[in-house]
């Protein structure tokens, strides 16, 4: 396969613009940087940009639409994702006689060092010839670097609702010292319901703090649950082989 004649521009972690070739671009450096563009806001726009705090990176990042926000929730909950960047870089090049320029939506660097580049598109847009050509070009570039490429069009609503419910446990450092460890100790079993864990609240601990501590353990992956079913006190929690570092 011939080397693609494309260039990459990104902003490093102190805000300096960096230009390099597609071949030499390094995901581990790009993912630590700043967005190469900030999604605009204007009267009458149909998408909803905003800011998302990612527990994976422990920093705020921009998103361009609510669909992109959904993908960020999934990435932030994914134990296999080590770093996340949004609007990570701009690719410029040519495909035959056609010039190409594109800013992908999300860059994921996984804990095993593999890389996934994500473009977020409503499924109705995929039939547009210009969108189809852009995605095909980006996919072919990723293939030359051994990167995974994903076009995200949406996810199961129940799964996203459950992840957002568990997200109250994303900031365990705000809880009283030792409370998360106490919650984790109650999960030292192969299978238990959420109700059973909640009833094991230590004496003197308020109900809300205990619930957050339990959900912090679930967010961290100490137990697993069926995310396709609505989260409730009868939800069954099962032992997990691994947890968030």
UniProtKB/TrEMBL annotation:
Pfam families in the cross-refs: Tn7_TnsA-like_N
Domain TnsA endonuclease N-terminal, residue spans: 81-153
Domain of life (superkingdom): Bacteria
Matches recorded under InterPro entries: TnsA-like, TnsA_N
Name of the protein in question: TnsA endonuclease N-terminal domain-containing protein
Gene source species: Nesterenkonia halotolerans
